[in-house]
Amino acid sequence: MSSEEIILSDVQDSDSKVHIGIHRVGVQNIPKIIKRKRAGRYNELTAYIDVFVDLEPSKRGIHMSRNIEAINEVTAGLLEEVITDTEELCAKIAEKVLNAQPGATYSEVHLRADYEMQTYSEAIHSIKTSVHRLLAGACAKKTEQGIILTKMIGAEVGGITVCPCSQELSKDYARIKLKKQGYSDEQIEDILEVVPIAAHNQRSKAMLLFELPRGAPRIELEDIITTLESSMSAPLHEVLKRKHEQAVVIYAHKRAAFVEDVVRLILQNVERNFPQLPDETVIHVKQVNYESIHQHNAVAELRITLKQVREQLRR
């Protein structure tokens, strides 16, 4: 060794002054360009990746650079390749970073990217193009039997919800006014059945994420997005002519739904649309309604196994 060479200290591996373990330590929002092909279609995704590992109580810190190196090593081979599963990409990163961090027993990877696709809109009976948020990830856990990997695939989708409570209040108002105009009770109910009744609307966001063991049947992102769009009062449309705008409003007001209703409908649609999934599949659902007449937002969220969903729906 040259007398001029300096041995650099490895502070991360030094003893922690406070012996408390930390479950998630890592880096967020690492940008990567990923080429993806699914169902015969090519996409170039601008993805943002987070990588975390656990930290044992006695160690002062993790090697942050190794998390980024794990991302770079896995994605470096993709520069001229096309992947089919973003969740499998996350699984490879999770496994690599777990082996790269001394003492780590758990790693977690999250990936987010905007994703453009065409879906059929029941509201306007036509194909539309929308941009949604792709969600993927993976967890890796060291056990005596080896590393156990769990993959995650899902989406965030925008939509419209119509408030059932305000709609019912509008119906009460209409009944009183029509009664004063001399309409019979039967005529009033016929009118309320035919004419769209006013209610306040919300822009909404639905999230559905599946946690699957490695080797589980593949889930198509397009099916997840379609499931979410069909579970809200109406989907969002970037361009609407007057007749289509009218159609969306009428369609949404016929499908008024509370934030709780949407979560339950998503789970009902999951049970119907993904019969190939095993009972141990974990489902995370979240619905946010951005209220139009309140300062607050309405939120409903649930993490549940597919077995529990199937059992509850059979009751």
What name does the CATH topology carry?
Urate Oxidase
Low-confidence stretches: none
CATH architecture call: Roll
List the domain count as a whole number: 1
Strand composition percent: 35-45%
The largest sheet, given as strand count, sense and whether it forms a barrel, is:
9 strands, antiparallel
Tally of extended strands? 9
Listing every helix as H and every strand as E from the N terminus to the C terminus, the arrangement reads: EEHHEEEHHEHEHHEEH
Structural description of this entry:
This protein is of the alpha+beta class. It has one domain (20-163, 200-314): Urate Oxidase, CATH 3.10.270.10. The chain is 32% helix and 37% strand. The protein has helices at residues 64-76, 86-100, 164-180, 185-194, 221-231, 242-253, 259-273, 306-314, and strands at residues 22-38, 41-55, 106-121, 126-143, 146-162, 201-213, 234-235, 282-290, 298-305. Helix 1 (64-76) crosses helix 2 (86-100), helix 3 crosses helix 4 and helix 5 (221-231) packs antiparallel against helix 7. The longest helix has 17 residues, at 164-180. The radius of gyration is 25 Å and the shape is elongated. The mean pLDDT is 88.
How is the secondary structure organized here?
Blueprint: E1 22-38, E2 41-55, H1 64-76, H2 86-100, E3 106-121, E4 126-143, E5 146-162, H3 164-180, H4 185-194, E6 201-213, H5 221-231, E7 234-235, H6 242-253, H7 259-273, E8 282-290, E9 298-305, H8 306-314
Antiparallel strand pairs: 1-2, 2-3, 3-4, 4-5, 5-6, 5-7, 6-8, 8-9
Helix pairs in contact: 1-2, 3-4, 5-7
